[in-house]
């Protein structure tokens, strides 16, 4: 029978199963968690979680404050690493390992020492495998591991058991009850009955509303002051804080997406340029190729050891100067003290105790500079150097410089005054120099412009190379622009597709035939040259670049003068009523006379109507050279072109109308509302005017009636007074 001993190195698959089990069963049921792992016990699973897999474990490098705190707590709680770990924020094993590492550095031990008894030998068992990284899984797993993974997958994914069904049923009942209560409250609210949240039992206190142990003060003779009214307008923290930065960024992101979509619809090339700009970061980087190493691994290890020794020596013994006491490292001093304390024997042997200052505070204390009278003497002497007076320190501190420009108690003169005195001393020494006794003339040879030998082999500067490249390119562009046709310089329309250009086949008879052939050949080369060097968007340039001979500018000016002279002679000899000479005259004037303004088209209207497009030959010819079929085909083609043009204009009109509606729809709706409000205001003004006139009329009538009623009541009062006087006189005694 095979005996299975649980423990050993943790594998990657076991770590993943442990994480999933902790997510399902929690941190208080390690026996059930360990049942998923065949080779691990509950104690080992718990140790693995709390020593390595817990996400709250800090695995970064140790800081200076943590090291000082570790040494301080190690002196207060010796060997109590379970107590020290939570105080520092590390695990107990991390604290123990780093403490031993600090002691080794203080004693000057090598970390890679093969004779270190704490290192594992081949065949020994690791006493703490839970604190080590997991081992990669083998390609071919054992049957036990495959069975363990299958069982863990089945148990962790079990959602059809009795408990799972009961939990799901209770959750569904609770959800249905909540929805029914919410629906009932909504119906009552729509019916006009406001129902609040369910109130607790009377015997239970609501700490959110009531005040526990409240004692009402006894009523006195005077009313107490009313409490200050609480501003209920700000009911949430978001209203108090205002607009959050993430909300603003979200708004900006939505605006950018909306603008980008609009840019895609209106200007696709610009949108593609933006996409290319941001997608350039996702381009796969090429594989880095490094040269072969020139030193071996053993030599590199030896260099690293030498560097560590030099750094440790530099940290322990800082560079001292005559003006300061060298500063030492507190961590190394404390580590040496603890290492020496561990090596002490029993006190009965009578050895002397190690003298060490108290390391009470774990934080880095502020170390003040040691006052040195020698430095003041050096500062007073202006001839002394200002170097070598800095305080060496392992960590940079803010130290006030003693070389201040102004005077102080320690330096009454001041550095600036000493500098001025030194300058005066130098000037006076130069003026007191003796006069020259001999004069020597030296003839210096002219410096040749030939480059020096070291300059000939010197690599040119990239700025000069770039400047030469730009100037060369500018000269090349100037040559290309000079050899370009005048149609490109004047911005005249040019053919888009070079292969579909039709050249005239008619050539005059006689000796001028060879001349016209040369002219046509040069004309074709110039057109092909322009299609290659100055391409048009959407056009097809010439596939074979032509060869153009460089032309002299003087030759071009002479040729232009000859052409102008010949054209002027032809214009005088030609009939102005003829079609083609008149058109040739207009074209020549447009090309060679820049001050010429284009004539009216009414002069050429009759002649232009005689020209039509021949589909068979694919060119414009005179109408008298076309038959009825060609005229009909040309008219149908023009009709189709006009129809396509109208359809395109109609689509553009619809797009502009939709765009106009989108931009002006809100304004028009607002305009209708404003007009409606204006009409209502005019109606209200009219009604108020009518009411005003009515009340004015009523006021005038009331004033007249008041006078009549006043006089009437006054008469009645007089009659009553007279009647009372008569009765008094009649019945008086």
TrEMBL record:
Residues 2-53, 54-103 form the Myb-like domain. PROSITE patterns: HTH_MYB, MYB_LIKE. Transmembrane segments: none annotated. InterPro entries: CDC5L/Cef1, Cdc5p/Cef1_C, Homeodomain-like_sf, Myb_dom, SANT/Myb, SANT_CDC5L_II. The keyword Nucleus applies. Residues 106-142 are annotated as: Disordered. One of its GO terms (molecular function) is DNA binding. Residues 2-57, 58-107 form the HTH myb-type domain. SMART domains: SANT. GO terms for biological process: mRNA splicing, via spliceosome. Keywords: DNA-binding, mRNA processing, mRNA splicing, Nucleus, Repeat, Spliceosome. One of its GO terms (cellular component) is spliceosomal complex. Belongs to the CEF1 family. This is Bifunctional SANT-Myb domain/Myb domain/Homeobox-like domain superfamily/Pre-mRNA splicing factor component Cdc5p-Cef1. It comes from Babesia duncani.
